[in-house]
Amino acid sequence: MRFAIYITLILFFSCNSRQGTIEKTTTVENKFDTIGSVEILDGQLLTLLDSNARIEKLAGGFKWSEGPLWIKDGNYLLFSDIPPNKIMKWSEEKGLVEYLFPAGYTGAEPRGGEPGSNGLILDSSDRLVMCQHGDRRMARMNAPLDSPKADFTTLADGYNGKKLNSPNDAVFHSSGSLYFTDPPYGLVGNMDDPKKELPYQGVFRVRTDGTVDLLYKELSRPNGIAFSRDEKKLYVANSDANKIWMVFDVKEDGGIENGKVFFDASVYPEPGAPDGMKVHSSGTIFATGPGGVMIFSPEAKLLGRINTGDLCSNLAFDTNEDYLYVTSNGNLVRVKMK
User: Fold this and answer.
1) Domains along the chain?
2) pLDDT tens digits for 41-69?
3) Residue 192 gets which letter from DSSP?
Protein backbone atom coordinates (compact mmCIF):
# COMPACT_ATOMS: atom_id res chain seq x y z
CA MET A 1 0.00 0.00 0.00
CA ARG A 2 1.07 3.56 -0.49
CA PHE A 3 0.66 6.40 1.89
CA ALA A 4 0.52 10.10 1.21
CA ILE A 5 1.56 12.70 3.71
CA TYR A 6 -0.10 16.05 3.28
CA ILE A 7 1.91 18.90 4.67
CA THR A 8 0.27 22.29 4.96
CA LEU A 9 2.68 25.15 5.07
CA ILE A 10 1.24 28.44 6.33
CA LEU A 11 3.39 31.30 5.22
CA PHE A 12 2.80 34.73 6.68
CA PHE A 13 3.97 37.84 4.91
CA SER A 14 3.59 41.55 5.24
CA CYS A 15 3.53 44.02 2.36
CA ASN A 16 2.63 47.75 2.42
CA SER A 17 1.30 47.32 5.96
CA ARG A 18 -1.16 44.70 4.74
CA GLN A 19 -1.02 41.20 6.26
CA GLY A 20 -2.12 38.14 4.34
CA THR A 21 -1.89 34.38 4.49
CA ILE A 22 -0.66 32.07 1.75
CA GLU A 23 -1.67 28.42 2.12
CA LYS A 24 0.32 25.88 0.13
CA THR A 25 -0.37 22.16 0.13
CA THR A 26 2.40 19.78 -0.93
CA THR A 27 1.96 16.04 -1.41
CA VAL A 28 4.95 13.84 -0.52
CA GLU A 29 4.51 10.19 -1.51
CA ASN A 30 6.49 7.30 -0.06
CA LYS A 31 8.38 5.64 -2.89
CA PHE A 32 8.09 2.02 -1.88
CA ASP A 33 5.32 -0.52 -1.35
CA THR A 34 5.18 -2.17 2.05
CA ILE A 35 4.80 -5.84 2.98
CA GLY A 36 4.54 -7.95 6.11
CA SER A 37 4.62 -6.83 9.72
CA VAL A 38 6.86 -6.41 12.76
CA GLU A 39 6.09 -8.55 15.80
CA ILE A 40 7.38 -7.37 19.19
CA LEU A 41 7.59 -10.19 21.75
CA ASP A 42 9.65 -8.41 24.40
CA GLY A 43 9.69 -4.71 25.28
CA GLN A 44 13.49 -4.76 25.17
CA LEU A 45 13.25 -4.75 21.38
CA LEU A 46 11.41 -1.40 21.38
CA THR A 47 14.74 0.33 21.94
CA LEU A 48 15.73 -0.81 18.43
CA LEU A 49 12.54 -1.26 16.45
CA ASP A 50 8.99 0.10 16.42
CA SER A 51 6.07 -2.30 16.23
CA ASN A 52 4.64 -0.25 13.35
CA ALA A 53 7.92 -0.06 11.43
CA ARG A 54 7.34 -0.35 7.69
CA ILE A 55 8.88 -3.20 5.71
CA GLU A 56 9.64 -1.51 2.39
CA LYS A 57 10.07 -3.49 -0.82
CA LEU A 58 12.95 -1.80 -2.65
CA ALA A 59 13.30 -4.12 -5.65
CA GLY A 60 12.10 -7.51 -6.86
CA GLY A 61 12.18 -10.09 -9.62
CA PHE A 62 15.35 -11.89 -8.49
CA LYS A 63 15.86 -15.66 -8.71
CA TRP A 64 17.30 -15.99 -5.19
CA SER A 65 18.73 -12.90 -3.53
CA GLU A 66 21.50 -13.33 -0.95
CA GLY A 67 24.51 -11.87 0.83
CA PRO A 68 23.64 -8.16 1.30
CA LEU A 69 26.57 -5.86 2.09
CA TRP A 70 26.39 -2.14 2.78
CA ILE A 71 29.15 -0.02 1.25
CA LYS A 72 29.79 3.10 3.31
CA ASP A 73 31.82 4.94 0.68
CA GLY A 74 29.07 5.59 -1.82
CA ASN A 75 26.04 4.70 0.33
CA TYR A 76 24.86 1.67 -1.59
CA LEU A 77 24.05 -1.98 -1.05
CA LEU A 78 25.53 -4.94 -2.89
CA PHE A 79 23.84 -8.34 -2.92
CA SER A 80 24.03 -11.60 -4.83
CA ASP A 81 21.42 -13.00 -7.19
CA ILE A 82 22.76 -16.53 -7.18
CA PRO A 83 21.17 -18.47 -10.08
CA PRO A 84 22.00 -15.85 -12.76
CA ASN A 85 25.54 -15.53 -11.38
CA LYS A 86 25.30 -11.78 -10.68
CA ILE A 87 25.95 -9.22 -7.98
CA MET A 88 23.45 -6.37 -7.96
CA LYS A 89 23.78 -2.84 -6.62
CA TRP A 90 21.01 -0.75 -5.05
CA SER A 91 21.12 2.87 -3.88
CA GLU A 92 18.50 5.38 -2.82
CA GLU A 93 19.74 7.73 -5.51
CA LYS A 94 19.99 5.44 -8.54
CA GLY A 95 17.89 2.42 -7.64
CA LEU A 96 18.91 -0.98 -8.96
CA VAL A 97 21.75 -1.73 -11.42
CA GLU A 98 23.84 -4.77 -12.28
CA TYR A 99 27.21 -4.60 -10.51
CA LEU A 100 29.20 -7.70 -11.51
CA PHE A 101 28.90 -10.68 -13.85
CA PRO A 102 30.10 -13.38 -13.56
CA ALA A 103 30.18 -13.30 -9.77
CA GLY A 104 30.55 -16.89 -8.56
CA TYR A 105 31.27 -19.13 -11.52
CA THR A 106 33.92 -18.23 -14.06
CA GLY A 107 34.15 -21.55 -15.90
CA ALA A 108 33.50 -21.93 -19.63
CA GLU A 109 31.28 -25.01 -19.37
CA PRO A 110 27.59 -24.17 -18.83
CA ARG A 111 26.15 -25.42 -15.55
CA GLY A 112 22.85 -25.25 -13.71
CA GLY A 113 21.98 -24.99 -10.04
CA GLU A 114 23.16 -21.98 -8.05
CA PRO A 115 26.50 -20.95 -9.59
CA GLY A 116 26.77 -17.36 -8.37
CA SER A 117 28.28 -15.67 -5.36
CA ASN A 118 26.57 -15.97 -1.99
CA GLY A 119 27.87 -14.12 1.10
CA LEU A 120 29.69 -10.83 0.49
CA ILE A 121 32.02 -9.12 2.99
CA LEU A 122 34.84 -6.58 3.03
CA ASP A 123 38.36 -7.24 4.26
CA SER A 124 40.37 -4.76 6.36
CA SER A 125 41.40 -2.93 3.18
CA ASP A 126 37.80 -2.58 1.97
CA ARG A 127 38.27 -5.14 -0.80
CA LEU A 128 35.30 -7.28 -1.79
CA VAL A 129 35.51 -10.88 -0.59
CA MET A 130 32.87 -13.36 -1.71
CA CYS A 131 31.68 -16.91 -1.23
CA GLN A 132 31.70 -18.31 -4.76
CA HIS A 133 29.37 -21.26 -5.28
CA GLY A 134 30.31 -22.18 -8.82
CA ASP A 135 34.08 -21.88 -8.40
CA ARG A 136 33.78 -23.52 -4.94
CA ARG A 137 36.08 -21.09 -3.20
CA MET A 138 36.51 -18.02 -1.05
CA ALA A 139 37.78 -15.30 -3.35
CA ARG A 140 38.72 -11.62 -3.40
CA MET A 141 37.91 -9.28 -6.27
CA ASN A 142 41.03 -7.69 -7.75
CA ALA A 143 39.44 -4.36 -8.54
CA PRO A 144 38.27 -1.28 -6.64
CA LEU A 145 34.68 -1.29 -5.40
CA ASP A 146 33.79 1.58 -7.72
CA SER A 147 35.25 -0.19 -10.80
CA PRO A 148 34.26 -3.86 -10.42
CA LYS A 149 35.48 -6.58 -12.74
CA ALA A 150 35.43 -10.37 -12.71
CA ASP A 151 39.07 -10.82 -11.74
CA PHE A 152 39.57 -12.82 -8.56
CA THR A 153 42.24 -14.14 -6.21
CA THR A 154 41.57 -17.44 -4.46
CA LEU A 155 41.74 -17.26 -0.67
CA ALA A 156 40.68 -20.87 -0.05
CA ASP A 157 39.32 -23.58 -2.34
CA GLY A 158 40.10 -26.83 -0.56
CA TYR A 159 41.07 -28.64 2.61
CA ASN A 160 43.52 -31.54 2.94
CA GLY A 161 43.70 -31.91 -0.82
CA LYS A 162 39.93 -32.06 -1.32
CA LYS A 163 37.82 -29.42 -3.03
CA LEU A 164 35.43 -27.37 -0.91
CA ASN A 165 31.67 -27.90 -1.39
CA SER A 166 30.41 -24.34 -2.00
CA PRO A 167 31.25 -21.63 0.56
CA ASN A 168 28.06 -19.96 1.74
CA ASP A 169 28.67 -17.23 4.30
CA ALA A 170 31.73 -15.67 5.91
CA VAL A 171 32.99 -13.23 8.52
CA PHE A 172 36.37 -11.73 9.37
CA HIS A 173 37.88 -11.84 12.86
CA SER A 174 39.78 -8.78 14.04
CA SER A 175 42.97 -10.86 13.79
CA GLY A 176 42.48 -10.95 10.02
CA SER A 177 41.45 -14.62 9.93
CA LEU A 178 38.52 -15.45 7.67
CA TYR A 179 35.79 -17.80 8.98
CA PHE A 180 33.32 -19.41 6.56
CA THR A 181 30.72 -22.15 6.22
CA ASP A 182 30.66 -24.77 3.47
CA PRO A 183 27.31 -26.51 2.82
CA PRO A 184 26.57 -28.19 -0.55
CA TYR A 185 23.94 -25.78 -1.94
CA GLY A 186 26.13 -24.56 -4.78
CA LEU A 187 26.70 -28.07 -6.15
CA VAL A 188 24.29 -28.92 -8.95
CA GLY A 189 23.44 -32.25 -7.30
CA ASN A 190 23.68 -30.93 -3.74
CA MET A 191 24.64 -33.78 -1.38
CA ASP A 192 24.47 -36.31 -4.20
CA ASP A 193 26.65 -34.40 -6.62
CA PRO A 194 29.38 -36.70 -8.02
CA LYS A 195 31.88 -33.85 -7.76
CA LYS A 196 31.43 -33.50 -4.01
CA GLU A 197 34.76 -34.42 -2.40
CA LEU A 198 34.42 -33.64 1.30
CA PRO A 199 32.32 -36.13 3.32
CA TYR A 200 31.06 -33.38 5.64
CA GLN A 201 29.89 -29.78 5.64
CA GLY A 202 32.42 -27.78 7.62
CA VAL A 203 33.03 -24.55 9.43
CA PHE A 204 36.49 -23.37 8.35
CA ARG A 205 39.06 -20.71 9.12
CA VAL A 206 41.62 -19.21 6.76
CA ARG A 207 44.57 -17.79 8.69
CA THR A 208 46.42 -14.71 7.49
CA ASP A 209 49.20 -16.95 6.12
CA GLY A 210 46.66 -18.84 3.99
CA THR A 211 46.44 -21.97 6.15
CA VAL A 212 42.95 -23.50 6.12
CA ASP A 213 41.69 -25.08 9.36
CA LEU A 214 38.61 -27.23 9.83
CA LEU A 215 36.95 -25.95 13.02
CA TYR A 216 33.74 -28.01 13.13
CA LYS A 217 32.11 -30.68 10.96
CA GLU A 218 29.09 -31.93 12.91
CA LEU A 219 26.44 -29.70 11.34
CA SER A 220 24.41 -30.98 8.42
CA ARG A 221 24.08 -27.56 6.70
CA PRO A 222 26.22 -24.84 8.33
CA ASN A 223 25.16 -21.53 6.88
CA GLY A 224 25.09 -18.05 8.44
CA ILE A 225 28.02 -17.12 10.65
CA ALA A 226 28.76 -14.15 12.94
CA PHE A 227 30.84 -13.15 15.95
CA SER A 228 29.52 -11.57 19.11
CA ARG A 229 30.63 -7.96 19.55
CA ASP A 230 33.52 -8.97 21.84
CA GLU A 231 34.44 -11.91 19.53
CA LYS A 232 34.22 -14.34 22.45
CA LYS A 233 31.32 -16.20 20.82
CA LEU A 234 30.80 -17.52 17.31
CA TYR A 235 27.24 -18.09 16.10
CA VAL A 236 26.52 -20.56 13.28
CA ALA A 237 23.14 -21.22 11.69
CA ASN A 238 22.19 -24.71 10.52
CA SER A 239 19.81 -24.43 7.56
CA ASP A 240 18.32 -27.89 7.83
CA ALA A 241 14.99 -29.28 8.98
CA ASN A 242 15.99 -29.14 12.64
CA LYS A 243 16.18 -25.31 12.44
CA ILE A 244 18.85 -24.55 15.03
CA TRP A 245 21.49 -21.93 15.68
CA MET A 246 24.70 -23.00 17.42
CA VAL A 247 27.02 -20.92 19.60
CA PHE A 248 30.69 -21.67 20.29
CA ASP A 249 33.30 -20.24 22.62
CA VAL A 250 36.19 -18.69 20.69
CA LYS A 251 39.57 -19.74 22.09
CA GLU A 252 42.57 -17.47 22.37
CA ASP A 253 44.18 -19.16 19.38
CA GLY A 254 41.07 -18.53 17.27
CA GLY A 255 39.71 -22.05 17.43
CA ILE A 256 36.22 -22.83 18.72
CA GLU A 257 34.98 -25.12 21.48
CA ASN A 258 31.99 -25.91 23.71
CA GLY A 259 29.46 -25.87 20.91
CA LYS A 260 25.83 -25.90 22.03
CA VAL A 261 22.41 -25.06 20.67
CA PHE A 262 21.78 -21.34 20.97
CA PHE A 263 18.16 -21.43 19.80
CA ASP A 264 15.90 -24.18 18.44
CA ALA A 265 13.25 -22.89 16.03
CA SER A 266 11.90 -26.28 14.98
CA VAL A 267 8.59 -25.54 16.73
CA TYR A 268 7.87 -22.68 14.32
CA PRO A 269 5.77 -23.97 11.42
CA GLU A 270 6.40 -21.11 8.98
CA PRO A 271 8.54 -21.84 5.91
CA GLY A 272 12.21 -20.97 6.16
CA ALA A 273 15.25 -22.24 7.97
CA PRO A 274 18.13 -20.53 9.83
CA ASP A 275 20.30 -18.77 7.27
CA GLY A 276 22.21 -15.48 7.40
CA MET A 277 22.66 -13.34 10.51
CA LYS A 278 24.17 -10.08 11.71
CA VAL A 279 24.93 -8.82 15.22
CA HIS A 280 23.74 -5.30 16.03
CA SER A 281 26.05 -2.95 17.97
CA SER A 282 23.84 -3.61 21.02
CA GLY A 283 24.73 -7.30 20.84
CA THR A 284 21.25 -8.20 19.60
CA ILE A 285 21.26 -10.94 16.96
CA PHE A 286 19.16 -10.51 13.81
CA ALA A 287 18.87 -13.86 12.01
CA THR A 288 16.81 -15.02 9.05
CA GLY A 289 14.66 -18.03 9.84
CA PRO A 290 11.07 -19.30 9.85
CA GLY A 291 8.73 -16.59 8.59
CA GLY A 292 11.34 -13.92 8.03
CA VAL A 293 13.82 -12.46 10.53
CA MET A 294 14.07 -13.64 14.14
CA ILE A 295 15.62 -11.29 16.71
CA PHE A 296 17.46 -12.65 19.77
CA SER A 297 19.09 -11.22 22.85
CA PRO A 298 22.66 -12.41 23.56
CA GLU A 299 21.04 -14.68 26.17
CA ALA A 300 19.07 -16.44 23.40
CA LYS A 301 15.70 -14.87 24.25
CA LEU A 302 13.45 -14.34 21.24
CA LEU A 303 12.63 -10.62 21.28
CA GLY A 304 10.57 -10.38 18.13
CA ARG A 305 10.22 -11.17 14.46
CA ILE A 306 10.11 -9.30 11.18
CA ASN A 307 7.52 -11.23 9.20
CA THR A 308 8.10 -10.66 5.48
CA GLY A 309 5.72 -13.40 4.36
CA ASP A 310 8.46 -15.03 2.30
CA LEU A 311 11.69 -16.97 2.67
CA CYS A 312 14.57 -14.77 3.82
CA SER A 313 18.21 -15.56 3.19
CA ASN A 314 20.38 -12.86 4.73
CA LEU A 315 20.55 -9.30 6.03
CA ALA A 316 22.80 -6.29 6.61
CA PHE A 317 22.75 -2.99 8.47
CA ASP A 318 23.84 0.25 6.90
CA THR A 319 26.73 2.20 8.41
CA ASN A 320 24.78 3.90 11.20
CA GLU A 321 22.28 1.07 11.68
CA ASP A 322 19.47 3.32 10.46
CA TYR A 323 18.10 0.55 8.23
CA LEU A 324 18.13 -3.23 8.18
CA TYR A 325 18.29 -4.59 4.62
CA VAL A 326 16.97 -8.10 4.00
CA THR A 327 17.23 -10.35 0.95
CA SER A 328 13.84 -12.05 0.89
CA ASN A 329 13.66 -14.67 -1.86
CA GLY A 330 13.02 -12.67 -5.05
CA ASN A 331 12.92 -9.35 -3.25
CA LEU A 332 15.13 -6.81 -1.52
CA VAL A 333 13.43 -5.17 1.46
CA ARG A 334 14.40 -2.88 4.32
CA VAL A 335 13.13 -1.91 7.77
CA LYS A 336 13.71 1.42 9.51
CA MET A 337 15.51 1.01 12.82
CA LYS A 338 15.21 3.42 15.72
Assistant:
1) 4-336 (2.120.10.30)
2) 999 999 999 999 999 999 999 999 999 99
3) G
